[in-house]
Amino acid sequence: MKIKAGTFYGIGVGPGDPELLTIKAVNAIKEVDVVFTAGHQRSGISMAGKIAYEYLQGKEVIALPFPHTFDSVSGRSPHREAAEKIVEALKRPASVAFLTIGDPMTFSTFTYVLEAVRDIDPGVPVKVIPGITSFAAAAAATVTPLAEGEESFAVVGAAKTTEKLSKAIDAVDNLVIMKPYRHSGEVCDILDERGLGMHTWFCVECSRPHERCYLGLDVAREEGSDKYMSLFIVRKELK
Ligand SMILES: C[S@@+](CC[C@H](N)C(=O)[O-])C[C@H]1O[C@@H](n2cnc3c(N)ncnc32)[C@H](O)[C@@H]1O
Fold first, then answer.
1. Which terminus of the chain, N or C, has less C-beta within 10 A?
2. CATH T-level assignment (fold) for domain 134-235
3. Ligand 1 pocket, 225 CB below 6 A?
4. Same fold across 8-129 and 134-235
């Protein structure tokens, strides 16, 4: 892919294992002029930056402080402030990348930042390089098919409301529940009520050195509420 000055690249760096970065992502990271990463608000450490560390040496890397937030863009939100810096860099003109864990179009800060960038300059050319999602890594770790044959499959976020989760359980065969962490107790209650406890994998830090996956809800109940890097996979029909 030819990297162009003035273009904004959203790059997925995968779920954690640097070997799960795509060749396309690596080539783009190596070639862009400026790399923005979403750093944790307090520590400033960027998970995406750590995954791509090897390819960031000697590059202009700007870590942006973000809370774990899922609000849409408003006023001087962190997304707006990030977008202002990104648009400034694009106008130099430079090629600019924003790195995101997993895939940029799946529950990612990238889409909020992109919305804010387009708000400032609707004409900015944008290219997205997909990444391997966290749930693809979790399915691989637990050797769980996410969808087979005529099955249906949903990805549900549990960050704000578990209401959608109940509806999704009624509607589909298999589910991934992302961002459960502060709500993991509620999620476990719902799964228990439906008799799905032993149909559920709780997966933490997939593809990372401390990856662990547990069948059933016990560990999720005990530890889920402080494990941000966790998700559930549910298969309603066991074979
Ligand atoms: C902001 S979302 C990022 C999703 C990412 N864009 C993707 O494609 O997977 C953060 C949530 O993704 C999930 N997640 C990301 N990486 C993970 C990993 N390595 N293991 C387990 N869950 C992970 C967790 O549910 C976490 O709360």
1. C
2. 3.30.950
3. no
4. no
